[in-house]
Specification:
Flavin reductase family protein; mainly beta; Pnp Oxidase, Chain A; oxidoreductase; NADH-dep_flavin_reductase; Flavin_Rdtase-like_dom
Length: 168
């Protein structure tokens, strides 16, 4: 296909969609909670996160239907969304693992309701799930913000064209 040629919708495949969408740089967040019944922290990494509304304060993120961690996060009353900094690629990779103790080696403190606020994150946002919308192979989660704070200035961890990095 020639550069700049239009791909008909019927000809779209996952690889091409990912390649084109990869041209949009996103930040990376860690969505965390204390798993009910176990008292253990758990979490996932996501690059589909955005603010939605100021009044009421709402944010949104997307989670794949195949996530085995999301049902455990969803069972918690409160979640903590941690905006990861450039030096936190290791945290992102840990939380992207399937199974095991995802928090092994990750230091954290409690948000006001006790959800894991990851040490070194640029900021944290404590929220509760308000709505969920099925969208293809993901669920769009809209969450109400209850508390938030900045931890420090720093460069964000960025996902662009299939790779992690920072802003120069």
């Amino acid at each position: 296909m020639a550069h700049g040629a239009i791909t008909p919708a019927a000809d779209l495949d996952g690889a091409r969609f990912r390649q084109v969408m990869g041209r949009f740089a996103t930040g990376v967040v860690a969505i965390t909670a204390v798993e009910p019944g176990t008292g253990r922290p758990t979490g996932i990494a996501a690059n589909s996160f955005t603010s939605v509304s100021l009044d009421p304060p709402l944010v949104a993120f997307c989670v794949a239907h195949t996530s085995t961690t999301w049902p455990r996060l969803r069972a918690s009353d409160r979640l903590c969304i941690n905006i990861l900094g450039e030096p936190q690629l290791d945290v992102c990779r840990r939380l992207a693992l399937k199974g095991g103790d995802k928090f092994d080696g990750i230091d954290w403190t409690e948000s006001p309701s006790g959800a894991p606020a990851i040490d070194g994150a640029l900021a944290w946002i404590e929220c509760s799930v308000e709505q969920e919308h099925v969208a293809g192979d993901h669920v769009i989660v809209v969450a109400r913000v209850h508390a938030l704070d900045e931890n420090h200035d720093g460069r964000p961890l960025v996902f662009y064209r299939g790779a992690y990095g920072g802003i120069a």
